[in-house]
Amino acid sequence: MRKSCMTISQTNPNMEKEKPVHRTAHEHSIVLSMLKKIPELVSQLSGEHLKIISKKVFSETWIKGSTVIADDGLYVILKGLVQPRIKVLRSLNEESDSIISSISRESYSFDADLIDSTLAEIYVPSREILLRQWDTFGSLEAASHTEENEPSFSVVTEEECEILKIPAKEYEKLKLAKVKREIMRKLKLIRRCPFYENWPTLSICDLVSLSKWKIFPPGQVLVESGTVSPFVGFINAGYCNIYRNIVGLMRIRVNKVLKVPKLVYMGKLKEKESFGEISVLLQAPFSCTIISGGEVEMMIIEDKDILALDSVTKELMIQTAKPTFGHLTEEDVKHEYIQKVQAKEWKHFKVGSGRKLHVE
Fold it and tell me: Which end of the chain is more exposed for a tag (fewer CB within 10 A), N or C?
């Protein structure tokens, strides 16, 4: 990062600052590369969020012997050594105490309950712990109300140090922006599903608050025929195959056949389609089996959350949704099955006749 002006901060004479606005695009890129080396950040932030936060951080230069209080962000040591300060309880009458006599009066931190006593909480550098380059201290999370009265974590610089600061308030902004984007993404998905095109926004927001994302691998049975759906699903990416059960005949000998249950493919559910509403609300078993055709990203709302909706929203859902492929009759399934069997036998006949055919 650029060491432009060397102006001393008016709030702290021991510190020099370089603000993000003073950095060039190339220097922002360098900062981003540095942040990617820090496990604590990489484990919490995506690449996109690291890029955003890299434009909000700034460096601070501290002279030897400075106390750095980490009460409003995460600090990364770029250069130098620091010692964490630890709390000790000592009698103020122990003038010969080696710890008391070795530190200045400004290092004392008094607890309100101990002001009139002879005891004090004193923060002194730990001689057993040293933090070095790329080590971190502080937190990305802003202090909660319950923690505001607690003393903040602090360190003492052993030499001149350059420390990168990631403000907690910037991380909080990032989290809020992420939550807003997720809400809008879910809202748009529900709105684009046919059953919900004319729903009031407030009712859709009620569904959004109960939903979560889930990815299903290819070939996973999501709902089995004869069972109640465990959730209402909204397909965001991918597709699901729909099958109906039928009892088919399998020839085992020349003059003998065996009845076997078979699944007949009847169609698919595509992106921006939903399923499970009627099954969950009316506790009605599915008449078909739904299997993911490939990897499917879906927003789901668990059955218990759907059943806990207010009566108005539940009634609205019952009125606008329809059973998944509920229009299919037994005759439709039988007809489809016979066609597939005949097509299969016809392909086998053609192949057996010696002609070269491409079989799908």
Answer: C
Q: What residues have CB less than 8 Å from 163, skipping those under 6 apart?
A: 59, 60, 61, 62, 68, 75, 76, 77, 78, 80, 82
Helix (H) or strand (E) holding 304: helix 303-307
Compute the distance between CA of residue 184 and CA of residue 197 in angstroms, rounded to an integer: 15
**Joined tokens for residue 60:** 């601070």
Single-letter amino acid, residue 153: F
Higher local confidence (pLDDT), 210 or 151: 210
Distance separating alpha carbons of residues 272 and 270, to the nearest angstrom: 6
Q: Exposed, middle or buried, 260 (CB in 10 Å: 0-12/13-18/19+)?
A: exposed
pTM: predicted TM-score of the whole model, two decimal places: 0.65
- Going by C-alpha positions, the residue among 212, 225, 197 that lies closest to residue 300 is 212
Phi-psi region of 242 (alpha: psi -120 to 50; beta: other; left: phi over 0): beta
Cα radius of gyration (the chain): 33
Question: For all residues of the chain together, what is the average pLDDT?
Answer: 77
pLDDT digits (tens, 9 = 90+) for 277-289: 999 999 999 988 9
Burial class (CB in 10 A: 0-12, 13-18, 19+), 5: exposed
All residues at 6 or more sequence positions from 127 whose CB lies less than 8 Å from its CB, including other chains: 83
Return d(Cα 350, Cα 356) in angstroms, integer: 8
Structure tokens at 53: 């936060």
Residue 110's pLDDT band, with cuts at 50, 70 and 90, is very low
Residue 134 tokens, joined: 């790329």
**Do residues 231 and 289 touch, judged by C-beta distance below 8 A?**
no
With 80 as the cut, is the pLDDT of residue 308 above it? yes
Provide CB contacts within 8 A for 334, sequence distance 6+.
246
